[in-house]
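Sequence design from tokenized structure. All designs in this work follow the same two-part layout: the structure record, then the generated sequence. An example of the structure record is given first.
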């Protein structure tokens, strides 16, 4: 009779996601108002891309912040 250690029930993806969460930078909540037509378009875009609104907005905001910071010669 041989004994083996139990296999982890966690999937590798779950562990990677947990490690990513731990290493994230602290965040601040941003509350903004946008026109309803923009919100409808935003919902359609994220649905087509298969992403979350939060992730999409963070991505485009980060890109634009980088562009503006470089044009204004602002360092992080």
């Amino acid at each position: 009779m041989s004994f083996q250690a139990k296999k982890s029930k966690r999937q590798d993806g779950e562990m990677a996601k947990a490690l990513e969460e731990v290493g994230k930078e602290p965040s601040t909540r941003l509350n903004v108002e946008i026109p309803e037509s923009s919100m409808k378009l935003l919902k359609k875009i994220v649905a087509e891309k298969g992403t979350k609104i939060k992730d999409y907005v963070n991505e485009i905001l980060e890109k634009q912040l980088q562009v503006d910071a470089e044009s204004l010669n602002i360092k992080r």
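The chain has three helices and no strands. We note this feature because it recurs in several other targets discussed in the main text.
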